[in-house]
Amino acid sequence: xxxxxxxxxxxxxxxxxxxxxxxxxxxAVNNKxxxxxxLANSLVNMLEADVIMGYKSPDNVTVLPIMAHxxxxxxxxxxxxxxxxxxxxxxxxxxxxxxxxxxxxxxSRDILKKLNANAIYPVFINADIFPGPINADNTxxxxxxxxxxxxxxxxxILSIGWSTKPETENDGKQTRGYTDHQVKLAIDTLKxxxxxxxxxxxxxxxxxxxxxxxxxxxxxxxxxxxTTLTIWSSKDDKVDASSLSKLIKTVxxxxxxxxxxxxxxxxxxxxxGASGIAITTMTMLGSLLVNYLLTAMPQRG
Length: 301
Prior knowledge:
- It is built from 12 helices and 10 strands.
- By secondary structure, it is α/β, with parallel strands linked by helices.
- The protein is globular and about 50 Å long.
C-alpha cells in the first residue's frame, strides 16, 4: 500500500515553519560510518547520497547499485543496505538519492518500488538530465528515459538538474548562467511527460545568481504543482551572494531548498524572505482594508 502523496518536507519538519532554506543537509552519505554519523546528528534534516553501479566490498564479483561517487567503484554500503538501515533507524530525516547513471537507476527499480511504498519521510530522487552551463553537454542520465521510469514512483519528489562544470578564468561571461534554451528544454520535456509528482529544480548557485530571469521563467512556467528550487554550490564556487539573496527572496524561502556551504549561507540576507507573490498579495489586502475603512468612516459635513 502506498502513501496518498509524497511526504511534504514542510509538514515533516514543522519546526522550520515553512522556510525550506533552513533545512540542513548531510552530504556524501556513501558508507556505513558516514550513515551512522548522519543518523545520529540531530542537526541534520536530509541525507544526500550518491548511487552508482559497482561492487560492495569486500565482494568484488557482483555489480549492483551501491553508495559511492564517481570515480569510485566500490563501497561498504549497497543501496538496499542503505535504505534498510535508514528505514529502521530513521524517525526524523529525509533522503535524497542522487543517481549518477541511467544503469544505476534502472537496476534499482525493485528497491525503489519498495521505498516508494513504505517511506514515511521525504524522499528526493535526483539526476542531472539536461545539458547545462558551462558548456557541459554530457548527460549520462537521459531525460526521457529517466522521467518515464520515474513516473511510477508517485510518492517521491523528483529533483531535476543540469550537468554543469566549474567556472575557470578562461570562461567568458557570455557562457555563464542558465540560458533561455536550457530552461525551455526543461519546461517542454517535463510538460510532455504529464508528471504528477512534485518537482524541485536543482541549480548551481553561482550560475543561478547571474540568470534570475531564466530561473523565474522556469518557476513560473511549469504546470507541475508544488514546484520548488534546490540551490546547491561547490565549496570553491565564486557566488554573488547579493544576487543570490535577491533571487531566493523573489522565489520565496518557502519554495527554495538551500544546499550550500555554511560560509556562503552566512553571506546571504534572507531575513525578509517572503515571496514576491506573497508580498504583492499582502499589499493588495492592505490597500483593500484601508479603502474599506475610509469608506466606512463617517463623513464630515
